[in-house]
Every structure is written in C-alpha cells, then in structure tokens.
Amino acid sequence: MAIVASEILTRLHSIYSAEDLIVNEDELIVYECDGYVVEKKMPEIVVFPTTAEQVVETVRLCNEFDLPFVPRGAGTSLSGGTLAVGGGVMICLTRMRQILEINERDRYAIVEPGLVNVHLTQNLKGSGFHYAPDPSSQGACTLGGNVATNSGGPHTLKYGVTVNHVLGVEFVSPTGELIQLGGPLGELNGYDLTGLFVGSEGTFGVVTKIWVRLTRDPAAYRTMLGIFETVSDATEAISGIIGAGIIPAALEMMDQGIVGALEDAFHFGFPLDAGAVLLIEVDGLDVAVDLEKQKIIELCNQHGAREVRSADTPAERQLLWKCRKQAFGAIGRLAPSYCTQDGVVPRTKLPEILDFIIQTQKEFGIRIVNVFHAGDGNIHPILLFDERDADQVKKVIAAGDAILSKCIELGGSVTGEHGIGVEKINFMDKLFTADDVNVMTDIRSAFNPKGNCSPHKILPTAGACGMEHIERDKPGRQAAM
Amino acid sequence: MAIVASEILTRLHSIYSAEDLIVNEDELIVYECDGYVVEKKMPEIVVFPTTAEQVVETVRLCNEFDLPFVPRGAGTSLSGGTLAVGGGVMICLTRMRQILEINERDRYAIVEPGLVNVHLTQNLKGSGFHYAPDPSSQGACTLGGNVATNSGGPHTLKYGVTVNHVLGVEFVSPTGELIQLGGPLGELNGYDLTGLFVGSEGTFGVVTKIWVRLTRDPAAYRTMLGIFETVSDATEAISGIIGAGIIPAALEMMDQGIVGALEDAFHFGFPLDAGAVLLIEVDGLDVAVDLEKQKIIELCNQHGAREVRSADTPAERQLLWKCRKQAFGAIGRLAPSYCTQDGVVPRTKLPEILDFIIQTQKEFGIRIVNVFHAGDGNIHPILLFDERDADQVKKVIAAGDAILSKCIELGGSVTGEHGIGVEKINFMDKLFTADDVNVMTDIRSAFNPKGNCSPHKILPTAGACGMEHIERDKPGRQAAM
C-alpha cells in the first residue's frame, strides 16, 4: 500500500504534528501487541490525537482510504483487545488525558479517555469521593480502555463494574460522526445505548469523552486475611459469608502458589504452608463494619480457618492491597512466561472448578496458581510456562481451553472482565446460538457498517482483515490462550 | 381487512382456544388504552398466549399477513406504551404468569412475563429474599412490563431500577425467532444486549421468560416522616442527607396537596398545614440504621423541619407505605381527571423545578400536586382537571409541556421511569441530535426491521401505522400530555 500510504501520510501530517504520528517500524513495534502477548500484528501508522476533532478527521480519512483502525489506551488488555488486526491505523488516546470537570454536588466527573484510572481517584483525594472500579492494572490502564472492556476489579463485588459508573460517552462513530450518549444524569430516555456501548471493545467507535459517576468514600474499612488449610475450606467460607447476607467490598482468594510468590516479593508475612488465603474487606459505618468483621471471623472459623488476621492500620491495609494488586508482577518469580485466564462460574461452583484446575495441572503437567475475585465467581488461573518451549506452549493453550470449556459446562462463561478481544473469539459459537450471534452482528453493523473499526474483536469480521494472517504467522498459538 | 381477517382468524383459532382470543368490539374496548388514557386505539384482535411457542406462531402469522402487533402486560403504562398504534394484534401476556424456578443459593428466579411484580416478592416471603424494584403499581403491573419500561419505584434510590435486577430475557424477535439473552449469571460475554433490551418498550420483541436477581431482605428498617413548612426546606434537607453520604433506601416527597388527599383517604395523621412531607427510609444492620436515623433527624431539623416522626412498628411502616403507594388512587378525591407527569432534573435543581411548577399552576390556572422520588430528582407533578372541559384539557397539555421543557432546560429529561411510549415521542427530537436519533433508529431496525413490532413507541415509525390517525381523531389531545 505504498502509494496509498504516501497519500494518507500527507493527509495525516496535516492533522497531526510530527511527534503525534508514528510510522517507523522500530517505533511501531511497541504497538504490535498488548497485555495478551501471544498474538502480534503491527499497525501501519499510530496517531496520538489530542482533540475529538482529530479523531473525527482520522476516522473519516480511514474510511476514505478503506483502512481499518483501532483505538488503544494503555495497552493493558489481556485479550488482544487493541491488536491491530489487518494493520491500518491505531488511534492511541493516551494524550487525551484531561479531567474536564469534577462536579461534587451532582457527583460526576467528565474525563478524556486516555486518563489513567487511578489518576482520577488521586485527583479526588480529600473531596470525600473516589471512582469505584479498580482493576488490578489501575495504575496504568485508561478509563477509555475500562469503558471498552467494562472492566471490573476487586471492589466491584459491592460497587459494580464500569457500566454501573459510566453516565455517558462521547464517541466518534465508525463512519466519522461525533455522537453523545447519556450525560451527567445518565441515559434516561430511549434505548440505553450508553450501557450497550460500555463493553463493546472498540467495535462501536472511538471514545473521546466520558461522564463517570463519583462514589462517596466509605466512612471506615475493616480488612481481614483468612488463612485456610485448603482451597475448598476457603470457598465454603465465601459461601457462608455471602449466605449470611454480608456483601464485602472485596473478597479475593489467593492459593498457595501465588501466596509464595507474593511473600517472596513483598515480605508481608503470608503463611507459606496455607492452602489458601482470603483477603476480605468490608466498608461502611464504623459500628456496622465492626459487627460485620466479627461475623466474618466467626464464619471463617466455622469453615476451618486456621487463623484470621486483621490489617489494623491504614499502612497495613495499603500494603495488603499492594500485594494483591501487584500479584501479577510477583508471578515473574515463578516462571519465564505466564498466561492469565479469566473465567466465570456460579459462585456455588467454585469448589468444582478449582478441583478441575488441580486435575488440569496434573493432566497437562503445567503449574497453575490462582488469584481471583471469589465473591463474583470470577476465576483467574495463571498458567506458568516457558514460551521458548513449543511443547509447553501447546499444553498451556490446551489446558486454558479445557478450563474455559469446563466453566461453560458449569453454567458460567469464558470472561468475567478481560473481554473477548481476539483471544476468545472462537468461544462465541460455544456460548451463543446462531440466532444470538446474528443479533449481535446486526447490532455491530448498525454502529459499524463496514466492520473497519476494531475488526475481529468480540465477533469475527467477515472475510476481512487478516486474522487468518495472524494464525498463519504463528501456527499453534491460537485464540484459546 | 375483512378477508385477511377471516383468514388470519382461522389460523389464530388453530393456535388459541376460544377463551384465549378476543375479536368482539365490546370486549376489545377494554384494550383500547392503558394508564395513559388520553389516546385510544383499539386492537383488531387480542390473544392470550400461555406458551412461548404460541407467541412465536402469532408473530410469524402477523409477519405473513403484514399486521402490526404489540405486547401488553397489565396495561398500567402511563405513557401509552401498550397502545395498539395501527390496530393489528395485541399479545396480552397476563396468562403467562408462572414462577418457573427460584434459586436462593445462586440468588435468581426465572419467571414468565405476565407475573405480577408483587407476587414474586410474596412468593419469596420467609426465604429472606425479595425482588427489589417496587413501582407504585406493583400490585398490578407485570414483570414483563417492568422489563419493557425499565421501571423504577421508591426503593430504586438505593437498589437501582429494573435493569439492575434483570439477568436475562428470552424473547420472540419481531421476525419470529425465539432468542435468549443473558441467563442466571447475566450477560457476561459479548455486547450487553440484556441491558439494551430492558427499557426498549416492546420495540425489540415480545418477552417470554425473565431471569431476575433476588435481593436479600435488609436486617432492619427505620422509616421517618419529616414535616416541613415549605417545599424548599424539604428539598434542602434532601441535599443535606445525600450530601452527608447517607443513601436512604427511599426518599419520597409529598406536597401539601397530596398530603391532604392522602389524609382524607387513609387518616394516617398527616399534618394538613405542612408545606411538604418527606418519607425517608433507611435499611441495613440495626446499629447502622439507628445511627443513620439519628443523623437524618438532625439534618432535617437543621433544615427547618417542624417535626420528624418515626414509624416505630412494622404496622405503622406498612400503613405509611400503603399511603405512598396508593397516593394516585387518593387523587380521585381532588378532581375528576388527572395527568401524572414524569420528569427528571439533577437533584440539586429540585427547588428550581418545584418553583417553576408553582408558577406554572398560576400561569395556566391548573392545580398541580406533587409526589415523587426526591432522592433521584424524579418528579411526578400531577395535573388536576376535568376532562369534560376542553379548555382545561388544553391548559393541562400546555402546562405539562412547559414543565417537561423546563426539565430539559435544567439539564434533565422528560421521563424517569414511565417511558417515552407514544406520549413523549415528540420530545425525542428536543433531547437528541439527529445523529443520535439515527443511531437509535438503526439499532431498532437491527431487531425490528419492518417496524411492525410495537410501532410508534420511543421513536416514530416511518410512514406506517396510523399515529396520524390518532392525532386526527383527537385534535388538541396530543403527545405532550
């Protein structure tokens, strides 16, 4: 596409300054993949708009030159959500990162999509408010990316996922119109298109502005660490806590493998011989959380806890959360490569899926450690391997596939919060009937008639866009991983 | 359409028994309107399916004979959501009212669409669970209708509206396919079409099964009645309560006019000379609600409350809620006819819109009383008139229009929970840009390509279906009322 390239480049140079445009291969390589490192595809051009108007012009240009385009935030997607399938133009939104308004009285903020998640909460410090969804990657991931994948996080057990906190979005449609859905009051009239947009993984357009709900800071926290001999005891305790009508702000499980890695990294004092550790947090009024804490300790003990510790100071609480949020970093100590899976089962099926994961380890000879949002039934088995060993790679793909298929069999599904992306696109046929997939495809076409905006995400894009390409380039490293 | 009618009737008789099919005009007249009594249109045929298969066959038949069709539950819509615009077949779902499953462990129930809202909660009595959304009409309205309009209710301030409690729907698409969206775990993968479906006012198809979330009963309630000299003091108290970080389970305001009518009807002991009464409920753990109650009383007093009473026994609480939920019935004592409006403003704009309503009363010489979900900024001014007086009818229409336009001006919108229906369809152009409306129309077409399913609801249906008809029949009584 050399001639087109030179033409489109000239046009792009009239929209972007030189430092907001990348075409050199050695710079483009940074954008060849995201947190899902298994599949790679370089975009042909990366642009860094600073205004919505630039995004409009870019999208119109892509349509004129019949090029695919894909939005990208920080690139922390774990499912290849920002992979430039088919090449084309990547619209990187990290330079649109302003907070445009904070309205404490009506409890919303207006932000640009490239704002890093935690920066919003940091800006709210002292106001008594925060932004509730807190993905583990919140120190890096952008709010635009959170909108695309409907991100969760440890505190979404009580506070809900991104869609519960997004009141409106402004976006550039795949055909180049600037459209607003919702606003400070949310989407009250007509179809809930804001709700539909959140989680559409870039297939409905490029977000340029977001109205988010602000959440009041809780008056008090109580954070506990329940230490159990076995994973099964820990999951029974979870059912006991939720069954007692307590909704913890967070309820996270870590198994022995991950606890070992965390202890090596952070020296928190985790017991290395315990089968599982539960990180449990309640929030609310002081008296209420004291009562809930007492009840939770009782329930943990009833279900065979060896010990229940408390994080009694803010510093201890912060360290505990640092451990949990940086768990994935600590895994680097366990193996050269790892693949984080993301499955969901009804909470009552947690013991069953965890048993299955143990079996899977044995069957495939792959080590798997677990850290996950137990309260939601959202598992994150982490498959450890060495990517230089082709045999191990194959086994990891097969083991991940087996675990996800088991999730479906147990009435669950293949992603809780990481999205379908390109990674799990082949599972859609297993999850949905042909009629269901047709409805989804029709809806995508209503927004994205040519399929050139984020092609081959969530749903296959007909004919187009070189996914075959990727599979051909990397035999044996496919979507299931 | 006599010939077609005789053909289609024969075919319908092969699907339905005689008692599940209405064609006589004196029986059809019952279905000529819903709670929005201003516009009327008789369906040509009403059917009462008892199975999803019957719905599929009916929809296919309507497509074959090119007839419009519209689903209906209990007909409590306040916006003409079930009006048979263009005649055709009405699919009345009140005989599909079974509870198919209650799963307390995984906290969901599966119900048929014709189940009356309160019957689900009654069935759950003693289990420790209930179904949270509680529209004022909950003793009559159906869950299918709640899904169609995304119904709210007093307790949605804390617990959210219908969409937050619907995990999945099975529906017959406008082209006659039986489709399932979501399920016991909700819609985890792909687009959130369940969320999109809720609130689509019948334009995406006919619901045949619903998966709903069960909510744990709170451990304790505290219910208070704050009595204020003026509406403005009451609204300031509301801002104070919410600003203090308390989220009441319900926060309802009633003005002097409505309090008088309620007192006449129920003899609760409401003070007849107070400017406004706030009904405030908190729920949660005993100690927590005691603290919140104390704080709320303080805040009410700080904002000039004359008195704050408590409903101290379950019987008192129940009577208070009965008063609130039957407020609309009590209005019959005030005037021969009334029109309940439904607007939304940012909560901080409540004093402004209430002042405007007082002005509007004076300007148009129409009495208006107010009862509404103050915590949400969702107003329900009730315009009193005599429908036999054409001049009053005109004034009511104009006054309602003025109030809704003011809501838009204040950054709000024209419906909080009653839906657009046919009533407010002309406001869509004021609320949305042409591009926004185009996106909505495209989305509707993806589900409803011919526009024959619930025509002329939410969005105008091109050319078709005799809405002009209705306007011609009733000059001067139009959509704004």
TrEMBL record, chains A, B:
InterPro entries: FAD-bd_oxidored_4_C, FAD-bd_PCMH, FAD-bd_PCMH-like_sf, FAD-bd_PCMH_sub2, FAD-linked_Oxase-like_C, FAD-linked_OxidoTrans_Type4, Oxid_FAD_bind_N, Vanillyl_alc_oxidase_C-sub2. Residues 39-217 form the FAD-binding PCMH-type domain. The keyword Flavoprotein applies. GO terms for molecular function: FAD binding; oxidoreductase activity. Its cofactor is FAD. It comes from the Bacteria. PROSITE patterns: FAD_PCMH. Keywords: FAD, Flavoprotein, Oxidoreductase. Transmembrane segments: none annotated. Its EC number is 1.-.-.-. This is Putative FAD-linked oxidoreductase.
